Each structure stands twice: as structure tokens, then as C-alpha cells.
Predict the structure.
Amino acid sequence: MSETPKIGVLAVQGNFREHAAMLRRVGAEAVEVRKPEQLAELDGLIVPGGESTAIARLIRLYGLEEAIRSFRRPILGTCAGMILLDRRHLGLFDLVVARNAYGRQVASFEADLELLGEEEPLRGVFIRAPRVEGVGPDVEVLAELDGEPVLLREGRIIVAAFHPELTDDTRVHERFLDLVQEAMNVRA
């Protein structure tokens, strides 16, 4: 990459530190985002997993809700981030999900996922994970678990029902950085 991508990680609650560490592993600069004005200098944004109700409340409190809605660069949303980006919340992704649909915290699990275009499975960590209930016509399924979509893309946004930041596999973050790099090249 000619220029190091500067990726914000929404840092109001949840797994923001784990995403920041993963971003550094794949060669990006990670910025913890807590204020709306920080979004202006970013090449991409990650909305991490955590507790979706708490994150939603905090982004409203910090004035980040409209700033995220108007952010036009690539976004990665994982677990709670997937919920927040759906039709019912921020409305940035043509998707409807059910919260905690794979069970409570004690029902958390790991599973191998079929990743589009890859022979090697992707390990998914599911913690109180959302389940996809419906998607719009422009949504591409990138990975499935037992025939159900768990990693999806729509334009500049990727969402995951699982936590890719909790494994050593960097492929989800690499795919996200590919989107970021494409957007950076278009702007240049």
C-alpha cells in the first residue's frame, strides 16, 4: 500500500482494543474513536462487538450517531456492530437481524465457516451473536454457517455475526482493508 490506511475503531464499549491490535497486524493505523470530529480524518471505520444497546446509547450521548450515518468510507461491523448497522438502527446496511439469536453468553461457540473464494475455512467466534433474518437484493453473502449467512457485504460495508478480531485469522480485516484501499485509490 502506498499510504498507510487510518482506520477508526468505535471505542465507546466492546472489543475495540482487539480490533485495533488486528488492524496493526495487517498494516493499518488504528485510531480509537470517541468524538464525531475524529471521523473526518479516517479512511475506514470499525463498529465492534459488545453490547448493542449500550453502544447505541453511548453513540447518541457522544453525538456519534449522525456522524456515523453520514460517514461515506468503508465500514466493518462485527456482532453488535452488525446490529447497529442494520435497517432498524443506523440504517446503513440492508439487513434485519435478531439479537442474541444463537443463545446467551453460556451458549457461545466457535465454528469453521465456508468463506467465499477460499478453500481454507474461517474460524468464527460466536458470542451472543445476531442471526440474519433478511437481506436486501444487493447484499452479497461472503461466509455461511450451516447454510445461514454470517459474513456479508453491501457496497462499502462488511458485517459479521461473529468476532473475527478474537482469532489469529486476519482474512476478514484484510478484506475490509481491500475495500479501504480501493476507496483511497478512488479519492487519490
